[in-house]
């Protein structure tokens, strides 16, 4: 089953169905709330939930129209990288963590390098983790290509008290660190 998406086109279709074509969305949301015996809170998300309810209850055939997104492509394939779900999650990670490589520290603006959102556990081996934010890290283009899809190194910020496996350390002759 595909996911219901409340688009402007869907809202326009609902306006025509309830006789409010040309009216503001607020008027439609108020009318739908009244139809369902609710009080519209003035919140756009509440209004969209009312539109969704109207479509699902009164016009179920609309579900197969523009009110739906195509199913998510297989995460192991290249089509996945063009999907709405991936692009949205990718942007969320970039906004949260910033455009700085979590491996080498390169910055998109300062160093003029392209940033990638990398799957720590490769999506070809772990497709179920393809849209899990905790499996993602920001890497610059050179680090991402060097890592490839075979390496599972997690370059995200480590606990400062934990030993860094990449940091060189002196080893005493008796073998103790």
Description:
This protein is mostly helical and 177 residues long. It folds into 2 domains: 8-64, no CATH class; 78-147, no CATH class. Helices cover 34% and strands 6% of the residues. It contains 6 helices and 2 strands, in the order H-H-H-H-H-E-E-H. It has helices spanning 8-17, 25-35, 44-58, 84-97, 108-111, 141-147, and strands at residues 115-119, 136-140. It has a two-stranded antiparallel sheet with strand order 1-2. Helix 2 crosses helix 3 (44-58). The protein is elongated. Mean pLDDT is 82; it is low at 166-170.
What is the tally of helical segments? 6
Which parts are unreliable, with pLDDT below 50 for 5 consecutive residues or more? 166-170
Strand order of the largest sheet: 1-2
Instruction: Estimate percent helicity.
Output: 25-40%
Shape: elongated
The major sheet is characterized as: 2 strands, antiparallel
Q: Give, in order, the helices and strands.
A: HHHHHEEH
Q: What is the typical, i.e. mean, pLDDT?
A: 82
Would you count the extended β strands for me? 2
Kindly estimate the percentage of residues that lie in beta strands according to DSSP. Answer: 5-15%
Structural class: mainly alpha
Give the distance, in angstroms, between the N- and C-terminal Cα atoms: 57 Å
Total discrete domains: 2
Radius of gyration: 24 Å
What's the SSE blueprint?
Layout: H1 8-17, H2 25-35, H3 44-58, H4 84-97, H5 108-111, E1 115-119, E2 136-140, H6 141-147
